[in-house]
Amino acid sequence: MKHVEYFHPAMRFLHWLMVAAILTMLFIGIAMVASVSSLHSLLVAIHKPLGVMILVLVVVRLWLRFATVTPALPASLPAWQRGVAHLSHWILYLMMLAQPLIGWAMLSAAGYPVTLGAGIVLPPVVPVNNDWYALLRPLHTWFALALFATVMLHLAAALLHAFVLRDGVFRSMTGMRKP
Q1: Can you list the domains of the chain with their CATH numbers?
Q2: Do residues 108 and 60 lie in contact, with contact meaning Cβ atoms separated by under 8 Å?
């Protein structure tokens, strides 16, 4: 297999775009839950299409992940840490896929359409059902909290690699050349 030092430029672009989108989405979600003001409608109007965008981007990113060569983790990392790193990435992918799908299903169960603007309305993914909604609503919240915690752990690991270990892992996703 070909050895590369950096992730493909499209992977790096999607990574940082998704960082911005997911953090924005998490903060919008918090503001939506905490807000009873006139901003709530605006936040919902942003939240739905942003969730669909994240879903599409993660599918594209997964395709790129399998279609491109990725840098190897440093040999200096113990095998268990390499295993945890790989597992944590797959957990992030799973959560990034699941969270918008749970939100879409929750809205479908409540009978609310997922609108993307310009008259684009996505079809429901589950039938209208109060029992489903009662299950999916808290699940969407718990997944959001778990995703936020996982993103924070990912950030902590990235900063560890960037500033303590200085082993090239962080640089592989930023595209920065060695000093």
Answers
A1: 9-174 (1.20.950)
A2: no
